[in-house]
Amino acid sequence: MSVFKPKRSPYFAYDFEIQGHRFYGSTKRKTRREAEVVERDLREQKKQEVTDQQGAASSLQLDHVADRYWIERGQHHAGADNTERDLARLIEYFGKTILLTEITDDDVTKLVAWRRGHRVIRSKATKAKDAPLISNATVNRSTTEMLKKLFTHARRWGVTFRREPNWRDHMLPEPVERIRELREDEGERIDDAMREDYAPLFAFVHTTGVRQKEATLLQWSEVNWQTRQIVKKGKGGKTITVKITATVRDILWPLRGHHPEAVFTYVAQRTRDGLIKGERYPLTLSGVKTRWRRTRKAAGVTDFRFHDFRHDFATKLMRQERNPKLVQRALNHADFKTTMRYMHVLDDEVGDAVERLAQSRKNPGLQDAESVTQSPGKGPGISSVGLPKPLTKRG
Q1: CB atoms near residue 368 (< 10 Å)
Q2: Comparing C-alpha atoms, which of 235, 223, 187, 199 is closest to residue 387?
Q3: Ramachandran region of residue 215, left (φ > 0), alpha (ψ -120 to 50) or beta?
Q4: What span, in angstroms and rounded, lies between the C-alpha atoms of 329 and 84?
Q5: How big is the chain by its Cα radius of gyration, in Å?
Q6: Which of 22, 142, 204, 254 registers the highest number of CB atoms within 10 A of its CB?
C-alpha cells in the first residue's frame, strides 16, 4: 500500500518505488482520499523525473549530472535543502551546459575565489555590505566538496576523467576546532536566562551531545519508547541512535501532546505572520539560533557556541569514563579520528601514570602500597567530573 497513516501523526504518508528509485514522505493530508490524490500527482511527477534522468544518463552536462545526483543521492540527505542550494549555486556559476569533463583546476580555482566573496546573510533585514564573509569551512563544504561529489558520483557511472581537478589543492585552510567546556557557573547563568519553552531542547542537547539540527528537528516518529531509542538520520545522511535514558525520558515525556509531529516546540509570544499568541509551533533552526544568541548574551557567557554543548558533553564523558570507544559511540562518530580530539582530557592521567612509574623505579615497594590505598582504575589527582546535568528551568 503506497498511502498509509504512521503512528502518532495526523497526516497520511506515501511510499512508492519507480524503476528502483524509492520516494517517501508526508502528504500533509489528513484524509485518505486527499492523500491518494497527492500521492497520484507525486507519482506522475517522479515518474517524469526518472524518465528525464534516464534520458540524460549519458549526458555529462552539469545540470544533467546534478539532476541525476539529486534523484539518486541528494534528496535523501538529512540536509537535502542545503544540497539542493549547493547544486543550484554550481549551475549558477558554470551554467547548465558545461560538461563535467571540461571543468579544470583553473575553473575550480576561480569558483572558489567567487564563492569566497559571498557574505553571511542571517536575515532579510541584514544588509549585505554589513554581513561578514562566509568562512573557509563554508566554502569547502558548500562548493568544493559539492563539486567533488559530482565527479565521484559520475565515476560510479563509468565516466573517466583525463584531468580531474586536484581537490586537495582547492581546499581552503580551516582553523583547528577548539574544545570549549562549560563551567558550572556558566551553566547556572544559562539556566536562569533560558526561556521556559526552549529549555527542553537545550536540556536534551546538553544531556545527549546530539547536534543542533538533529535535536531541533526531532520528530515523534523517531522516538521509540518501547526500545528506548531515538533513531534518525544525522549528519551526512548516516543513521544515528540515541539511548533514551531515565534523564532523557524525563525531558521528553512531558512534551507529548504539544505537537503531533515535532518533539520540540515554542509558544508564540504574539499573533503575527499566521501565528497565534499562546499556541505551540515546531522549533526552527533559525529560531533556535536567534534564541541562543539572546540567551547567551543575557547570561553573560562569551565564546561559547551552540555546537560547544556537544564538545562539553564529549569532554566530560571522556574525563569520567576514560574510554574513547564509548565516547565515539555516544557521539555517533563514524571515524574514530574525530573522537581523538577529546583525548587531551587524559593528559593529566598520562602524566600521573608516568610519575607513578618513575616513583616505582625509585622505590619498588611504593607501587604495591599505592595499590592498596587507591580505588581501582583511578590515579592520584584524577578528576571524576560527572556528566553535565540537564539545563532545566528552575521554578
Answers
A1: 9
A2: 187
A3: alpha
A4: 30
A5: 25
A6: 204
Burial class of residue 91, CB neighbours in 10 A (0-12, 13-18, 19+) = middle
Q: Who's near 33: CB < 8 A, 6+ residues apart? A: none
Least confident of 68-77, 218-227, 236-245, 376-385: 376-385
CA distance 53 to 67: 7
Helix axes 308-321, 199-208, angle to 10 degrees: 40
Burial-class residue 64 by CB neighbours within 10 Å (0-12, 13-18, 19+): buried
Backbone dihedral angles phi then psi of residue 78, each to the nearest 5 degrees: -60, -35
Quick one: DSSP state of residue 275? Answer: B
Q: At 224, phi and psi to the nearest 5?
A: -115, 105
Give the contacts of 168 (CB within 8 A, at least 6 positions apart): none
Other residues' Cβ atoms within 10 Å of the Cβ of residue 121:
13
Cell of 168: 586537495
On whether the CB atoms of residues 88 and 100 are closer than 8 A, the answer is: no
Q: Which residue has the cell 558545461?
A: 98
CATH architecture of the domain formed by 184-343: Orthogonal Bundle (1.10)
The grid cell for 328 is 565515539
Q: What percent of the chain has pLDDT over 90?
A: 50
Let me know: does 301 contact 202? Beta carbons within 8 Å: no
pLDDT digits (tens, 9 = 90+) for 264-280: 999 999 998 889 999 99
Query: Which segment of 54-63, 186-195, 254-263 scores lowest on mean pLDDT?
Result: 54-63
Domain ranges of the chain: 1-55, 64-175, 184-343
Residue 390 corresponds to which cell in the numbers above?
Answer: 540537564
Report the distance separating Cα 144 and Cα 102, nearest Å. Answer: 16
Cα–Cα distance measured from residue 215 to residue 262, given in angstroms and rounded to the nearest whole number: 10
Longest pairwise C-alpha distance within the chain: 84
3-state DSSP assignment of residue 165: coil
- For residue 167, the one-letter residue type is W
Cell of 276: 497565534
Going by DSSP bridges, is the β-strand pair 21-26/3-4 parallel, antiparallel, or unpaired? unpaired
Distance in angstroms between the alpha carbons of the first and the last residue of the chain: 49
CB under 8 Å to 292, separation ≥6 — which residues?
306
Residues 6+ apart with CB under 8 A from 148: 165, 167
Residues 179, 311: contact at Cβ < 8 Å?
A: yes
